[in-house]
Amino acid sequence: MNFPLPDTAEALKGMIGREISSLRAAVRRTSERPPGGPGGTALASPLQSLSVLPPKAETDGVSPCLCSTHDPDGSGVCSVLPAIPASAVLLEPVKDEAGVVLDFRIVAGNRVRSADWLEAPDRQVGQRFLEARPGAVHSGLLGALTEVADSGRPLDGRVVDYTEQRLGRIHRAPLLYSAARCGEQVLATWRPVGSPADVLTIDAQYLASMGWGNWDLLSGTVTWSEGLTRIFHADVRMPWSLEQLCDALLADDLTAFSEFLSSVLAGEEPAWTRIRFLVLGEVRTLDLLGRPVAGTDGRPWAINLVARDLTPQIRSRRRLAETERESDRLRRQTEAERHVADALREALLPTYSEALAAVGLTVAASYRPAEPDSAVGGDWYKCRLLPDGRVLVAIGDASGHGLDAVARMAQQRHALAGLAQTGASAGEITTWLNELVCSDPAGQTATVVAGHIDRDKTLHWACAGHPAPLLLRDGGAEPLGAEVRGPLLGALPGYAYETTSTPLHPGDLLVLYTDGMVERRGEDLTVGIDRLREAVTSSSTREPQELIDALVADSELAGHGDDACVLAIRVD
């Protein structure tokens, strides 16, 4: 059967209503057609099937009853027991001489069996309750019924784990009991709490995020499983009709759901689709499998739907995709920063030209960034021959990490190189560099040791908050003494830094370093300087490059959470 596909939810609900009305009308016509009439034997229908059922067989008209209050006209409590859809009995207390309830006698019962191994209550009329239900004492059931008989307070929905031995086998069934006093008697009902298969089915639906529903198109009855009510956050006692499902559809999925329902109503099986519903403000994505339940006329009298909730997986995929996009963005950013850092390193870190060797100096240096993926950070050094024959020597540390620190480092390094071309003293150069850092809107500080070695091998240097260089002479290393050690760059605008002069001898080796070589959390800085001094002294016979390699390879020196930079200059 082909259906025109609706383009709105209201049109879809109208299509469903028309199909159900047509089905019901056809079934009514079929049920009214006389058997053996034109066209052969009439098709069976639910309505006809109910009308031709033979009357239920009776045994002597009514179920056995020993109720002392049973009226001659058939009225009484026992007369309503067959209408109760659960196992039901009417109990008469059996008391001792003191009026204490010892047991009950079953005076009436219906035919509903609560378990296949338990007899129907009407088969036990006349028996003592403990004879018919020997497990009532240990399960606490007898005491609960006695309390109802004595106090008159009803028993409402008590779960009894009933266990009984029959024919050498132990049987067990969780039963839900209710009871109330009726005059001097007690009316008790019970039904299964749920079979193990039911419990396992509910667990399986929960684990698989699945559920099922049945829509009886003739009676309008809708039945949902626990799993489906969980998916739609609905009440199991108030499942949604097909029209309510239409109201929860996302507009973009209307056509797909229309095609799906059309296929099911047309009797095609199985039909499958993926549909999104808006449930309590959240979009839930379901895989739906639909199957028609055909009647004797071949038309679907009911439809079954099985739903699998994909929302958690889709949510996880969305988070994974977002994480992958963020990771890709960070990877591209890291690659860009590494590319910039590599270019900066090639441009900023000194090369050791023949010009330095020509003036009698052997130079070696090493730089270790705090972050292994970074090529360069805020630490820097400079060693180059100036046009006037002096050799510029400097080492510094711009605060911070990452590209911001690299930018400040490049600014300070280039500024120092430009200021050194003026022929100014080390103190003047450092003073001007301090003014530059003070004018930076970022408000960051820096440290530096800057100076030059003149033609007669005298080091003229100034210090701005930086550790003093070490001088290795005659096998021992000691920090250089500065007349005045100035403050950090950027800390005091207008501060005038002073120049200190230190004569160098042939064989002397200067070691300039940043605080990453000596500073440790919770440790005084002088302890780290002594540690470095001892390491330099123990390597006094090595070439400058060998000395540098040994220092940066020492786990007690470099690599403790900060950039580490070291520069060695030997006077040949």
TrEMBL record:
<protein>
    <recommendedName>
        <fullName>PPM-type phosphatase domain-containing protein</fullName>
    </recommendedName>
</protein>
<feature type="domain" description="PPM-type phosphatase">
    <location>
        <begin position="361"/>
        <end position="571"/>
    </location>
</feature>
<dbReference type="GO" id="GO:0016791">
    <property type="term" value="F:phosphatase activity"/>
</dbReference>
<feature type="region of interest" description="Disordered">
    <location>
        <begin position="28"/>
        <end position="47"/>
    </location>
</feature>
<dbReference type="InterPro" id="IPR036457">
    <property type="entry name" value="PPM-type-like_dom_sf"/>
</dbReference>
<keyword id="KW-0378">Hydrolase</keyword>
<dbReference type="InterPro" id="IPR001932">
    <property type="entry name" value="PPM-type_phosphatase-like_dom"/>
</dbReference>
<dbReference type="InterPro" id="IPR052016">
    <property type="entry name" value="Bact_Sigma-Reg"/>
</dbReference>
<dbReference type="Pfam" id="PF07228">
    <property type="entry name" value="SpoIIE"/>
</dbReference>
